[in-house]
Amino acid sequence: MSPSTPADDYRGSGLLFPPDFVFGSATASYQIEGAAGEDGRTPSIWDTFSRTPGRVWNGDTGDIACDHYHRVEQDLDLMTELGLEAYRFSIAWPRIVPTASGEINQKGIDFYSRLVDGLRERGIRPVATLYHWDLPQYLEDAGGWAARETTDAFERYAEVMGRALGDRVDTWTTLNEPWCSAYLGYGQGGHAPGRHEPASALAAVHHLNLAHGRALQALRATSTGDPDYSVTLNFHVLRGQGDGASEAMRRIDALANRSFTGPMLRGEYPADLLADTSSVTDWSFVREGDLATVHQPIDVLGVNYYSTATVRLWDGISPKQQNDGHKGAVGGTAWPGSDQLVEFVEQPGPYTAMGWNIAPEGLEELLVSLSEQFPDQALMVTENGAAFDDHVADDGTVPDPERTDYLRRHFTAAHRALQRGVDLRGYFVWSLLDNFEWGYGYAKRFGIVRVDFDTLQRTVKDSGHWYRDLIRTRALPV
Ligand code: GCO
């Protein structure tokens, strides 16, 4: 290591990744597919939400997005060009089961079947997520994730997909970031369906956990291949401030992290979570037998990481705005009944275009901490990446040195975790394509491939070329 690259700058040059480490990239259905009304697809909660004035920046919707639905062959070729070893995508539930009648839409299945075949033909492993937030609107109309019946529908959908693709996918993932679905969707309201009901948010937490367990059972019963089974969680890597720092961190760790890892990986809700939220709900929606259903073995735990979060206790006297951490925080500020709330505070930079602080050491810390908490659990980074305000240079290239630097530093962090004995199987860059960034619409670009949203033309950014070289050499460029 040269003197200009001190050990803690996370810019490891030449670090070599093991031969079986999987390099991939990720997307999600609503963010890239478009074709919102085609081939039998009906609206999801994100179609409804994005059409509601004031919800999404600029009134953007996923109606066209990257038009991936029509350009899937071209996008598959792009993946080959980049040398991806795995591709993580999600399935749009309303394409598969478009109406409350439960009837299956074969055209929807055919689309994903072609995608999976196209990946396999190119030697790219298909990693399929069942739920990346596009709940069919008819299910939301019947109560959404706050209603237990949604888990019945999810189990049936999982069975259908297990039968359709379970002979060919490499990895099944039940849910992507249920934290966002529950707390941002039903508590803070910044995501679809945009409800502000703390008790419903906690009911949603449990129903998502239950849906995960039921889907794993259904997928295992119907998949005839030998897929791995997983779930993807976004973890809060916490820092504390002030006198009550450790108490503030404990509360958010319980609410954001252990509310999912507890039931999924240990078969129980943490006692402190139940106590902290007792003025909001009595958790009577947890029925006998549920926790055993939720607690199914998984082969790999998907970890999404972007930045850290800093919290402190707040006495509730001075009027404070709820700050937005990762995708808008659900601090204690959302929870009535306690005289000391938790607030998310601004963090030291540097920042990405999302305003998220860049902290690669947080990824290393998270991976090490998870492998200490769950020693037998293999891990996979299923999302990491950064939005920056890219521009196209005169020669048509897209120089994005900040994104490359962000990725280099986080790959270094992952490598350090490997060196520290973490069973880390692979890494998916978020995202393959610039896409619909939820409440931010098309304003935030996360892709290693640029998408011109007028012409829909794709251009591999410099970071994409950098990633291709990393995959080819398995070594961080010097
Ligand atoms: C996620 C989201 C992605 C986001 C990305 C950046 O799983 O967090 O699934 O859809 O686009 O995280 O916010």
Describe the structure.
The chain is of the alpha/beta class and 478 residues long. It has one domain: TIM Barrel (Alpha-Beta Barrel), CATH 3.20.20. The protein is built from 15 helices and 13 strands. The strands form 3 sheets. It has an 8-stranded parallel barrel, surrounded by 5 helices. Helix 14 links the parallel strand 10 and strand 11. Helix 8 packs antiparallel against helix 9, helix 9 runs parallel beside helix 10 and helix 14 runs parallel beside helix 15. It is globular, with a radius of gyration of 21 Å. The site of D-gluconic acid (GCO) has 12 residues, from loops.
| SSE order | EHHHEHHEHHEHHEEHHHEEEHEHEEEH
User: Number of helix segments?
Assistant: 15
Q: Using the CA coordinates, give the radius of gyration.
A: 21 Å
Rough outline:
globular
Strand order of the largest sheet: 1-2-3-4-5-7-10-11
- Quick one: CATH superfamily? Glycosidases
Name of the CATH first level: Alpha Beta
The count of strands amounts to 13
Fraction of residues in β-strands: 5-15%
Domains counted in the coordinates: how many? 1
How is the biggest beta sheet arranged?
A: 8 strands, parallel, barrel
Which cofactor or ligand species appear?
D-gluconic acid
Distance between the termini: 10 Å
* Helix fraction bin: 25-40%
The residue-averaged pLDDT reads: 94
- Low-confidence runs of at least 5 consecutive residues: 1-6, 319-337
